[in-house]
Design a protein that fits this description.
Length: about 140
């Protein structure tokens, strides 16, 4: 019989891995690593401009580059399990900002339909745990 603590450890691990996969899949799509299923960089910059319609369009390439670098970094850090609490908190803030921008530009339905608030809240939840089993953090700080 599996203990509650083991189930919680597994749930935390799965949450960390699925959040990492979400960030890494999105960046892979922008960089055409999903082949014909990729969105591509040009489409992502266009989407960034639409999502941040309240900002000058000239900001879109910079926002796209910074957000991609942030998402790639967070995805890798979450995947290997390094600095999980800080990384997850940053992921929560980034995705909350994304949800707010989507809400301003497209209405509340869009970030709800794409579960952006769920992604943000999940990241925040992950940031609150005192330990992370099966992670680099656990190896470095047993």
């Amino acid at each position: 019989m599996t203990s509650i603590k083991t189930q919680q450890d597994l749930a935390i691990f799965l949450l960390r891995i699925t959040l990492a996969a979400g960030f890494l899949s999105a960046t892979a799509s922008r960089l055409n690593l999903w082949g014909r299923h990729s969105s591509g960089w040009k489409n992502f910059v266009h989407s960034t401009a639409e999502t941040n319609s309240f900002l000058p369009q000239s900001f879109a390439p910079s926002i796209a580059a910074v957000s991609t670098l942030a998402e790639l970094s967070m995805g890798i850090l979450l995947l290997i399990g390094y600095q999980i609490s800080k990384t997850a908190l940053c992921a929560s803030v980034l995705t909350l900002l994304f949800a707010i921008a989507m809400g301003i530009s497209f209405g509340l339905k869009e970030p709800l339909d794409y579960s952006v608030f769920v992604f943000s809240a999940s990241s925040f939840l992950l940031s609150t745990f005192p330990r992370y089993k099966w992670s680099l953090d656990q190896l470095l700080h047993p």
